[in-house]
Amino acid sequence: MLDIYMNSQKTGIMNEMRDFVKSVPKKLLVDMDENRITYPAEYVREAAKRKLLGLRFSPEFGGRGLMWEDEIIALEEVGVLGTSLACLYSLVSIVGEALQVFGSDAQRKKYLKPLLEGKLFCAEALTEPRGGSDFFGATTTAKKQGNNYILNGQKRFVVGAEGADLFLVYAKTDEKTKPQTSLSVFVVERDMGVEVKHVYGLLGTRGGGAGRIVFKNVKVPAENLIGTEGAGGLIFNQMMIPERMTSGAGALGGARELLKIAARYSDRRKAFGQKIRTFEGVSFKVADSIMDLDAASALVHAAARSVDEYGSTGMTRRLVSEAKRYATEMAWRVVNNAMQILGGIGYTNIYPVERALRDVRLAMIWTGTSEIMNLIIQHEYYKEVLGEKASIRNIEADATEADKEEEKVYE
Questions:
Q1: 203: domain range?
Q2: C-beta of residue 176 within 8 angstroms of C-beta of residue 53
């Protein structure tokens, strides 16, 4: 992490998070990875006990009223524990965003407060069996009947499904309108009839209870609608900020500690009569990795500042997408470099590198694939460039023969 982002408040948060992260027993990490634990409820409760959940949210509901730049510090530290525990820590920040920004006072009191207190556990239900990136093609429906909505459909890859008490669910309330206004968002309590039909076996990121959930005529009170009918697109765009910022920030912490393992190993391991760090094939991998890590850190923090200052604007969406893509891909490169430096021993469970390699691969897929990030990045950039006012020097006119308009053929 770059120290230029630190002040006394951020240092305090970092130290609190480091104490929390140190308190997590090794046994929990191992048991989750070996599928002996499918939902670590006590871990979430401990974070709540220390008032470390939902740092951005109002103190009225148990948060600290901090900014994204502050939460990034916490997210980076919890990322040291790996993607599964980092994701479960982040779920309150993600689901809580919908309640904080779009929910009613009654909904915040009923759901946000107990989430921050660790009395309720949550999950977000986005992806459906028929597709992931095609979010607005969702087929789960919510039909209004009196003072209730009747939900039918399925969601899958729902992290935390195994232990969640409530789900943030996107469902179609109007199949005739355009996709962006066809969806609405609901808080659906597990006891309303949500079925967890399957908990997935995963390559990595295990122990978070990722499952497929089914709604069969689930009756949801109209008061559980977040915002208004048809506001699903608006809420989704806002929700992608915490979705992607948590992924990017968590990747920083994991990559940082894996690189340290590789650096320490290279300073101890000898070959051909000298420490392997003296070989450029090793030391240049460390140099590439630390430069990559610092660049990702700068981008994630820049995105956080943009969110804090400008909210959900086009520029913010671009920066958040860049941060998510670059940081998660950086983590993949750093972990691969670490494994290469350790060699064969890095491929065993003597070191946590092999687990990290399995874990971090998912980060380039969830909360929007790298390809979806590219779509957003280029789309928002074109909007910026083509909508730019003439207050900046037009260097196109500085070419020697820029006035030869007849040579500028576009069709």
A1: 124-232
A2: no
Q: How many CA atoms lie within 13 A of 307 on its CB side?
A: 31
Return the bridge partners of 151, or none: 142, 218
**Is the Cβ–Cβ distance between 172 and 185 less than 8 Å?**
no
Reduce the secondary structure of 282-293 to three states and give it as a string. Answer: HHHHHHHHHHHH
Read off the pTM.
0.93
**The length of the chain, given as a count of residues:** 411
Give exposure, 108-142, as e/b (b: 16+ Cβ within 10 Å).
bebbbbbbbbbebbbbbbbbbeeebeebbebebbb
H/E element holding 143?
strand 141-145
Q: 31-52 burial, b if ≥16 CB within 10 A, otherwise e?
A: bbbeeebbbbeebbeebbeebb
DSSP one-letter string for 148-206? EEEEEEEEEEETTTTT-SEEEEEEES-SSS-GGGTEEEEEEEGGGT-EEEEE---SSS-
The residue whose two tokens read 């992260």 is 21
180 & 228 share domain: yes
Is residue 404 in a domain?
no
Q: Is residue 66 domain-shared with residue 86, that is, in the same domain?
A: yes
The pLDDT tens digits for 270-311 are 999 999 999 999 999 999 999 999 999 999 999 999 999 999
CA distance 197 to 129: 13
Statement to judge: residues 265 and 179 lie in one domain: no
Burial class (CB in 10 A: 0-12, 13-18, 19+), 364: buried
CB-based contact 220:207 (threshold 8 Å): no
Angle, CA of 297, 94 and 46, to the nearest 5°:
90
Residues 6+ apart with CB under 8 A from 43: 24, 28, 85, 88
Same domain, 304 and 361: yes
pLDDT digits (tens, 9 = 90+) for 68-104: 999 999 999 999 999 999 999 999 999 999 999 999 9
Beta bridge partners of 183: 172
What whole-number distance in Å separates Cα of residue 238 and Cα of residue 118? 24
167/263 same-domain check: no
